[in-house]
Design a protein that fits this description.
single chain, about 350 residues, alpha/beta, D-Maltodextrin-Binding Protein, domain 2, 2 domains, eight-stranded mixed sheet, five-stranded mixed sheet, 15 strands
Length: about 350
């Protein structure tokens, strides 16, 4: 998850009867959950505990690195279940830190939208015929525009490079995503796996982006501050709908669109650790979070789409490209640092 500040709104959680389940492994019904802020608010947790007569031991993280450190510290034995995006999930699978789960043990998967219900269509969720995670929430990296300066929403990523908006564009300070964004804008087959012959064009494109922007933000809060204070016309929303919600809460008149080329998008899923003590209760946790009540909390408070109802932030047929591992993360980081330093393309490519 890419975490932003929460906008509070009271949502009544559902109280439907619990789904029958097999006997749990632990006499003491405890579930150790590792999640991002906003994924398991106190009232959401309390409703589950009361219904299931169980205890949730919740630990929160705010970066992918922190998530990895927590899960890998004792080979996954400290937690039962955790939330992780599709790209990051691959290294947990490779390291043997997660275990396959049984989708049929989660009845409410039937309520998920088709693009999330069909697991084998999402890169990285199914290995060797076994499912390793269940989609939970997502955000696409669309385009946010100032309605006072743009009367119509931009329809293409090319707007980020448009000289008309030079010095009025904001982007996120992240090399991997900006390189993928540049590859996507060029129409390359995969923005995550760039071939050797395509790198010169991609680097030129990234340098062009750097020259057109007024700056790069780190957090959602910083993006709001810069948008307000610097006369921003257009922003790539690395945190997606969260930023839309924050900007509107700050009194700004903004629009949001997914470009015709598609949008990079992160998809967070629930996965079982290899050291899970209570997998049956973990399946009940996922099943519960797919109900309308918790899903409404996620959307209302965090501005994050759930997987069971159409998102109000994009059209159902918009092209979303779920993040995948890139060809060489360290090289991308080096390239991005040289681009930010103002190096020419030849020097950047030498990284």
């Amino acid at each position: 998850m890419k975490q932003g500040a929460a906008i509070s709104r009271r949502v009544v959680l559902g109280t439907a009867a619990a789904v029958p389940m097999a006997a749990l492994a632990d006499n003491h019904r405890k579930l150790r959950v590792l999640a991002w802020p906003g994924y398991a608010d106190p009232d959401v947790v309390q409703a589950f505990e009361q219904r299931m007569q169980a205890e949730i031991e919740l630990t929160l993280v705010d970066t992918d690195d922190a998530l990895w450190q927590r899960v890998s510290a004792r080979q996954g034995r400290d937690f039962d279940i955790f939330a992780v995006n599709t790209a990051e999930l691959q290294r947990y699978i490779a390291a043997g830190l997660v275990t396959p789960l049984d989708p049929s043990a989660i009845p409410r998967r039937a309520d998920q939208l088709p693009r999330f219900r069909e697991l084998d269509t999402i890169a990285g969720l199914v290995h060797g015929g076994q499912a390793y995670a269940i989609p939970y929430t997502y955000a696409e990296m669309g385009l946010i525009h100032d309605r006072r300066q743009l009367s119509q929403a931009p329809t293409s990523l090319q707007a980020l490079w448009d000289p008309q908006w030079r010095g009025k564009v904001l982007c996120h300070n992240g090399g991997a995503h900006n390189i993928s964004l540049s590859a996507l804008s060029l129409g390359l087959p995969s923005p995550f796996q760039i071939g050797a012959n395509d790198w010169p064009r991609v680097v030129d494109r990234v340098i062009g982006l750097r020259r057109n922007v007024l700056g790069f933000y780190g957090s959602p809060e910083e993006s709001v501050r810069l948008f307000k204070s610097r006369g921003t016309a257009l922003m790539l929303a690395n945190y997606g709908s969260q930023q839309v919600q924050l900007l509107k809460a700050a009194g700004l008149s903004v629009g949001y669109s997914v470009p015709q080329e598609g949008a990079l998008a992160w998809l967070d899923c629930w996965a079982l650790t290899a050291g899970a003590r209570n997998p049956a209760l973990a399946m009940q946790w996922i099943n519960y979070l797919l109900e309308p009540g918790p899903g409404g909390v996620l959307l209302g408070r965090q501005g994050l789409a759930n997987t069971t109802t159409p998102s109000p932030f994009h059209r159902p047929d918009d092209r979303l490209l779920w993040l995948e591992p890139v060809e060489d993360p360290e090289r991308r980081t080096r390239l991005w640092r040289r681009v930010l330093a103002g190096d020419r393309a030849a020097k950047v490519l030498a990284a």
